Amino acid sequence: MEKFEVTILGCGSAVPNARHMTTSQLVNVHDKIFMVDCGEGTQTQIWRMGARVSALKHIFISHAHGDHFFGLLPLVSSLSLMLCRTDDLHIWIPAEMQELLERCFSRWCYLPFTVVFHGIDPTRRAVLVDEKEFTVETVPLNHCVPCCGFLFSEKPKPPVLLPERCKAAGIPPRQFGKIKAGADWTLADGSVVPNSALTTPSDFVPRRYAYCSDTAYYPAVIPQIEGVDLLYHEATFVTADEQKATFAFHSTAAQAAAIARDAHVGRLAIGHYSIRYTGEDELLAEARQVFANTVAAQEGMVLEV
Ligand SMILES: [Zn+2]
Known about the structure:
Blueprint: E1 4-10, E2 24-29, E3 32-38, H1 42-49, E4 56-60, H2 72-83, E5 89-94, H3 95-108, E6 115-120, E7 127-130, E8 134-140, E9 148-154, E10 160-161, H4 163-168, H5 176-180, E11 185-186, E12 192-193, E13 199-200, E14 208-212, H6 222-225, E15 230-234, H7 242-247, H8 253-262, E16 267-271, H9 281-290, E17 294-296, E18 302-304
Parallel strand pairs: 3-4, 4-5, 5-6, 14-15, 15-16, 16-17
Antiparallel strand pairs: 1-2, 1-18, 2-3, 7-8, 8-9, 9-14, 10-13, 11-12
Helix pairs in contact: 8-9
Bound molecules: zinc ion.
């Protein structure tokens, strides 16, 4: 099975503290590395964990709050200093941030590679990356500034070729590639052997990972993330502080779990913990009362999708 996993670099909110760094993750899809958010100290976490970022090609920023992007400039600067990077780097940010960030980069970063900025509209669902084996798309959320999550989805595998059937139909091996790609085969008498008689459906079940960054409780997200294998959802507050959550456009742990339950996800990881709490036990207990298969994200945790 190809690799599909999430490494938590930071899962706290607001400011780094002794327990948590601010938000950032690495998502490895088939050994292609993506970064989701880049809070302050992200590069420290990378070097400390020995995380592999030489193949990092895309960074996705969910919204213009510092605890999700203040680590961007130092990290990108260090990619050239530490790794002698020369490949292009694509940074996907809400469109409102693009001009200012471009100016910051051109003024203060001296890079031997090109940074390609892509302004995104967080209010709309859109495919940002479309690779042969997977896609990455935006997940519109409900925060006090334009904000979106990101959905990583493997594509279904093509049908598996049945060589014996192909040989029996007189198909030369050099044509097998076309059959694998879905073509039918026409016999000498003009009759057609359908592709379905020459192949069998793959037993591969595509996996999906949804990252829901800062958001108020927002059931409108459910149709898009329905049935994902792994959901990371912010859970900044406990239920006793639900009013604070509503005021700040954040979620409680129970609300995150309700989204997981109602979207029938496989597993939930909660994060983005408020610095007012001294641990995650209460958040985790409240989430598990609603959705049992929940883990509390921690720095260094690797979650398989
Ligand atoms: Zn925020």
